[in-house]
Amino acid sequence: MLARLLVLFLLAGLVPLLGAPGVARAASGCSGRPAKTVGFSTGVLRVYKSRAHVCAVTVAKKPGKRRTMSVTLQARGGRVVSDKGKYTKMAGPVTVDALNRCVRATGAIGKKSASTGWILC
Predict the structure, then answer these.
(1) Is this structure's pTM higher than 0.85?
(2) Cα–Cα distance measured from residue 57 to residue 41, given in angstroms and rounded to the nearest whole number
(3) Would you call the peptide bond into 93 cis, given omega within 30 degrees of 0 as the criterion?
(4) Inter-CA distances, 24 with 19, 48, 49, 52, Å
(5) d(CA 119, CA 1)
């Protein structure tokens, strides 16, 4: 019985390592390949693309102090998905289904922001 529990424990530890082939797991929490990065004075907006999904995060250049951060993402013809709050490091990730659709993303930290316009068309 103890041996079975040990095997299950070891296998459970390997599950996160068995992700989809060819898809990188970014430190940001988004999967896929980097598609667009837009820097601004207080942070950076990062957009990632996988086959059918797009993911975005806003990351602070100087993490530590709690401040208002947000990230929004919208596929053309779809609803806006957003994450807004007081964070120390990052807002997001937010994900939308975007198979064969353009997307736009916006990131903000404090009063400074950046956006991509329509991309991945």
Answers:
(1) no
(2) 16
(3) yes
(4) 8, 10, 10, 15
(5) 54
Q: How many CA atoms lie within 13 A of 11 on its CB side?
A: 6
Quick one: tokens of 19? 């992700």
Which residue do the tokens 């004075």 mark? Answer: 41
Q: Are 58 and 109 in contact (CB under 8 A)?
A: yes
CA 24, chain centre distance (Å): 12
Answer whether 35's CB lies under 8 Å from 118's CB.
no
Residue found under tokens 């837009």: 38
Residue carrying structure tokens 């990062």:
46
What's the pLDDT tens digit per position in 58-72?
A: 999 999 999 999 999
| Buried-state track 106-118, b at ≥16 Cβ within 10 A, e below 16 | bbbbeeebbebee
List, for residues 30-87, the tens digit of each pLDDT value.
999 999 999 999 999 999 999 999 999 999 999 999 999 999 999 999 999 999 999 9
